[in-house]
Amino acid sequence: MNNFTYYTPTKVVFGKDSELQLASLLEEFHCKKVLLHYGGGSAKRSGLLPRIENILSEANIGYVSLGGVKPNPRLSLVYEGIDLCRKENVDFILAVGGGSVIDSAKAIGYGLANEGDVWDFYKKVRMPNACMPIGCILTIAAAGSEMSNSSVITNEDGWLKRGCNTDYCRLKFAIMNPELTYTLPEYQTASGCVDIIMHTMERYFNQAENMELTDGISEALMRTVMENAKILKKDPTNYNARAEVMWASSLSHNGLTGCGTDGGDWASHQLEHELGGMFDVAHGAGLSAIWGSFARYVYKDNLLRFAKFAVKVHKIAASGKDLTSLPEEELDALALAGIKAMENFYHSIDMPTSLHELGVDVTDAQIEELAEKCSFHQTRTIGIVKKLDKADMIEIYKAAR
């Protein structure tokens, strides 16, 4: 078991009509003017935006609005938000939406609280030392950004998708009403469920001597999301299923499922970030499209872990309770069966397991570019289960075609 620090300062207000507590939450921070930041899809379809505006007006809290956040949030809109907030003397940012809106809000918060170009923080030239206070009303259960320290932004100049992780950007509060996710399209719900599961899988697949408690939480979380994703495919307004998925979204990415590990692998995310940057695909769908090929490429480097995933998450029977006593041939068969079972689940909720199914038919030249960018021009490797260099990345992208 590794040493760890677990830090989750975000206040969570969860349940039906929880958005009605917005004014009292904002008053705790004595804010005078709020940036109301949103995408435009689910927030508008649910009628949520007008309700928020009424709440702010009745509480005599000023606000300005900036919509238009895209699924892979753009740096150009971040710059626009920074300029607007400075012009309007905004002192609090309220994100209304999912991970993309929250990530964009975090980037705006960094830009307001620090000198210089905010993109410097994402290309790792320097690190921020502050962030404007941020809260959210969650309308999409997926990224877990409402309780994480991460933000991912896409720069249209070169279509680079990069992240910045610091505790400065952690939200002051997250309002989470599962009813606000009822209007999500089926594809977006399914893609969000993949993202949630993958945040836990990235931490679960590692090379550490893991804590059984953390493993048990991770395994239960993955099973819970898989079960409820299938329910939501048939019954999208099932409150209990929406609530399970929404809470799993936060727990999957707030650090809990990584306690005691080495931090996890994250290669699938890095590989997908380049797909998102180049082809603007939904993040969860990109992850499901790449994961099987990644897993088959690396599984022998931690065979026992992949076998445990098959047994504990997918309930595939082993010949003995103690996996460490099984012959390598059986561990290998279990590992491959677990990978296949995961892909079968993705298909059961209409998620892709290849780039072609994702709607992306990549050329060799594009794969070369993807790997070149993912390796930061051959200056880094990715992954923990197996260290992957540019040549490895090329092979995984090819296998995923």
UniProtKB/TrEMBL annotation:
<dbReference type="InterPro" id="IPR056798">
    <property type="entry name" value="ADH_Fe_C"/>
</dbReference>
<feature type="domain" description="Alcohol dehydrogenase iron-type/glycerol dehydrogenase GldA">
    <location>
        <begin position="9"/>
        <end position="178"/>
    </location>
</feature>
<dbReference type="InterPro" id="IPR001670">
    <property type="entry name" value="ADH_Fe/GldA"/>
</dbReference>
<dbReference type="GO" id="GO:0008106">
    <property type="term" value="F:alcohol dehydrogenase (NADP+) activity"/>
</dbReference>
<feature type="domain" description="Fe-containing alcohol dehydrogenase-like C-terminal">
    <location>
        <begin position="189"/>
        <end position="400"/>
    </location>
</feature>
<dbReference type="GO" id="GO:0005829">
    <property type="term" value="C:cytosol"/>
</dbReference>
<protein>
    <submittedName>
        <fullName>Iron-containing alcohol dehydrogenase</fullName>
    </submittedName>
</protein>
<keyword id="KW-0560">Oxidoreductase</keyword>
<dbReference type="GO" id="GO:1990002">
    <property type="term" value="F:methylglyoxal reductase (NADPH) (acetol producing) activity"/>
</dbReference>
<dbReference type="Pfam" id="PF00465">
    <property type="entry name" value="Fe-ADH"/>
</dbReference>
<dbReference type="InterPro" id="IPR044731">
    <property type="entry name" value="BDH-like"/>
</dbReference>
<dbReference type="InterPro" id="IPR018211">
    <property type="entry name" value="ADH_Fe_CS"/>
</dbReference>
<dbReference type="Pfam" id="PF25137">
    <property type="entry name" value="ADH_Fe_C"/>
</dbReference>
<dbReference type="GO" id="GO:0046872">
    <property type="term" value="F:metal ion binding"/>
</dbReference>
<dbReference type="GO" id="GO:1990362">
    <property type="term" value="F:butanol dehydrogenase (NAD+) activity"/>
</dbReference>
